[in-house]
Design a protein that fits this description.
globular; six-stranded parallel sheet; alpha/beta; binds zinc ion; 11 strands; 250 residues; TIM Barrel
């Protein structure tokens, strides 16, 4: 009999992670935060951007939004992410487009980043999320040499997604992301679908600053509803990304 796994993944380490972590703690959600070792404390307030939101039927709309993008300072980050329901993974030392880098610069962004995060937090780092979801074969080789066993695409989901675990070269295909307005209805289908012999996975990712978009899904109440819905299921096993990989590959 397969099992149902639920995991979350948030990139960039911005101040809004405080709100996400409070909700995770409230509902017993486990997950992974993807941090850049060279960017703690970076402030970049009041960003305007045109963002794409995926609606319930899978169609997209573009909205101009404003949000703050302030990365937590090191002391606060150490305190916030050192909790037993949180895993830390790398996200590139300086959040660069790694497919455009080569040689030592690329190694430092991936392997050096993981080493520095391991030193800072006193833990082992096993995941690396490529900034902008962009990578090439050299990036994958550097990852593998550094002992980093998994990554994740930066893609949206689809309302008709199945819940099979998918990954190539350790790079996981997420089920949906925070800007997908169908995330809750998809989760309801995940909960209501009987588990067969195959394991089922609901992998949700996003950026916590997307909570400030003010779109139909970019709000704290929407994320809370998602977590609350997941928490009502007695079948779901809540895992960090690494725990998911360990469970599915052991
Ligand atoms: Zn990022």
């Amino acid at each position: 009999m397969g099992r149902k796994y639920f995991t979350v993944s948030f990139d960039d380490g911005t101040e809004q992670d405080i709100r996400v972590i409070a909700l995770m703690e409230k509902y017993g959600i486990r997950g992974t935060f993807n941090l850049s070792s060279g960017l703690f404390g970076q402030r970049n307030e009041g960003i305007f951007r045109v963002v794409r939101e995926t609606l319930e039927d899978g169609s997209k709309r573009q909205i101009k939004v404003k949000y703050d993008h302030n990365i937590l300072p090191l002391g606060r980050a150490k305190e916030l992410y050192s909790r037993d329901f949180i895993e830390i993974a790398g996200h590139g030392a300086h959040h660069m487009h790694q497919a455009r880098l080569t040689g030592n610069k690329l190694k430092d962004e991936i392997a050096g980043d993981a080493e520095r995060l391991a030193d800072i937090f006193g833990i082992e780092i096993r995941g690396h999320i490529f900034p902008f979801g962009k990578y090439n074969d050299e990036c994958l080789n550097v990852m593998e040499d550094a002992g980093l066993i998994y990554g994740r695409l930066a893609t949206s989901g689809a309302p008709d997604a199945d819940f099979a675990f998918k990954a190539e070269h350790g790079i996981i295909h997420p089920t949906c992301r925070m800007t997908d307005a169908f995330a809750i209805s998809l989760l309801e289908r995940f909960i209501n679908t009987p588990c067969s012999d195959e394991d089922m996975v609901f992998y949700f990712w996003g950026h916590s600053y997307e909570l400030d978009y003010g779109t139909s899904c970019g709000r704290d109440a929407y994320l809370e509803e998602l977590f609350k819905t997941a928490a009502t299921s007695e079948e779901i096993k809540f895992v960090t990304n690494r725990e998911l990989i360990d469970a599915l590959t052991s």
